[in-house]
Amino acid sequence: MAEAIGSEMSSGSSMSDKSAKIFVAGHRGLVGSAIVRKLQQLGFTNLVLRTHAELDLTRQADVESFFAKEKPVYVILAAAKVGGIHANNTYPADFIGVNLQIQTNVIHSAYEHGVKKLLFLGSSCIYPKFAPQPIPESALLTAPLEPTNEWYAIAKIAGIKTCQAYRIQHGWDAISGMPTNLYGPNDNFHPENSHVLPALMRRFHEAKVYGAEEVVVWGTGSPLREFLHVDDLADACVFLMDRYSGLEHVNIGSGQEVTIKELAELVKEVVGFEGKLGWDCTKPDGTPRKLMDSSKLASLGWTPKVSLRDGLRQTYDWYLENVCAANK
């Protein structure tokens, strides 16, 4: 058991068998769909996928039955209830309760039914509101959380600790990865509750379509943010499943910072909006800087491959083909 607890790197390749049964929980979301694409690209042929209608992960008995029947070898847990500040404030019981149920059910059933390895995915919101920048893994639980999403964050922290507890008590290979801000195909482009990057993309696109002269963005544009293309995250997830077996969670970031102003100008260019970009400096900027320290992942041998410009182009193509085409 001591080896399982302390080892940073697994001995050799864990996922060499391309026919091994892999359960990707949450395969229709931004993250899960990218992981499925990556596994298929790599030649994995035995993916087990269930929609929410087919398997409600909050129902313990149903999850137990699923694992007893399917007996996957590997599990990647990308299923979660997610939302913005407004949703977290309005439905705190859902954000803590549903996520705790999903995690507890899947992790326990995976262990009970002989899963070889599990990867739990969280979020950078697990870290304190005033964490040091860049944020190292060691910043976890060192200070108070951001109040606006603490319900979701506490559930995700519990997921990390659950994986650690099963490793310590049972010597079971459960690991956790914490991604930075993500974007890419299957992102949420909803006009009211999407994140900054897809929101900007939608606004510039609609301004171009309707011939608007100017797009005005909240704040000064000075805050620094980090973005990772979801295909890079999927690549990192497979890398960690294959190569990492440590107790501590691992940050998954691009290591590249961009100001909101630079991001807006880049999205404007990719979309092809030729009007003006304005700033409403009476509106709040939010946290001045948010960057994850991903040096641990880099030291293991993984680096991102998709540049922000290329990633934005690909995401805009997907938006045109899927969101815009669906709305016609």
UniProtKB/TrEMBL annotation:
The EC designation for this entry is 1.1.1.271
Protein name per Swiss-Prot or TrEMBL: GDP-L-fucose synthase
Pathway as given in its UniProt record: Nucleotide-sugar biosynthesis; GDP-L-fucose biosynthesis via de novo pathway; GDP-L-fucose from GDP-alpha-D-mannose: step 2/2
What GO molecular functions are on record for this protein?
GDP-L-fucose synthase activity; isomerase activity
Cite the NAD-dependent epimerase/dehydratase domain residue spans from the record: 22-253
Q: Which InterPro entries match?
A: Epimerase_deHydtase, GDP_fucose/colitose_synth, NAD(P)-bd_dom_sf
- Please list the GO biological process terms of this entry: 'de novo' GDP-L-fucose biosynthetic process; L-fucose biosynthetic process
Catalytic activity from the UniProt record:
GDP-beta-L-fucose + NADP(+) = GDP-4-dehydro-alpha-D-rhamnose + NADPH + H(+)
